[in-house]
Amino acid sequence: MTAIRQPFLSASALDKSFVLHAQSGQQLDVMRGLELSLMPGECLVLAGRSGIGKSTLLKMVNGNYRVSAGRLTLHFDDGELELSDLPAQAWHVLRRDVIGYVSQFLRVVPRVSARQVVMEPLLSQGVAQDEACCRAEALLARLNLPKRLWDLAPGTFSGGEQQRVNIARGFIAEHPLLLLDEPTASLDSANRDVVVELIQEAKARGTAMLGIFHDEDVRERVADRQLPLEEHMLRAGDASTAVNDDTQELPR
Ligand SMILES: Nc1ncnc2c1ncn2[C@@H]1O[C@H](COP(=O)(O)OP(=O)(O)OP(=O)(O)O)[C@@H](O)[C@H]1O
Question: Cβ-count burial of 143 within 10 angstroms (0-12 exposed, 13-18 middle, 19+ buried)?
């Protein structure tokens, strides 16, 4: 008997518009009718021109932005979870246990050390302090973050150092779905190679990944498929003059 493989994440007729309250309530249509499916163990790379909505899609999957219309669904063995109408309190659990997100920039909290920032997703899952600490240090070492920085708060770190803390934090909890927003943008080639290895290992354990990679070499090495957003939308608005307004940022 052949097992039926189902996607872990799917989008169907997905729309996203922003309402710019500060600009006479103008509506900006960014995404129209997006269709996608992402299998477990697959790395799907979002492609398309600047402003087409790649980061917006990741933020919708992560619950930072609301879905305007359509379906965004997680498929579990025992049922489906529709993300577009999920109550706010459910996102906390989902981000703790299911969705990992490596954003472009680390959100630094004053006085919280790099090691602690990386350990936190494990601690919130109930992993013991010692084990969380060991795993955080192993990842930081692997990402070549100098040991002398581990006890310091990352606020003063270089862009590449902050990015590596962010990557360690994103990968440590081994979530089944990982969202990667240009995780290698500030890295040198040795550290880019480490990130490619981390992505390959995540694939091997069945993690579904949705990513944005502007570096062509990295993209080629990690992508199982590329999804040019233009070709998967019924109609895309020209959003080139948009400003940020509809940010519904929720704590990570
Ligand atoms: N919070 C927001 N409020 C209003 N408009 C927004 C908001 N976030 C994104 N947009 C608009 O949505 C469009 C898509 O932005 P997004 O950042 O998703 O593009 P992208 O494809 O990731 O671009 P790039 O490759 O340049 O990073 C842009 O025109 C942007 O201005």
Answer: buried
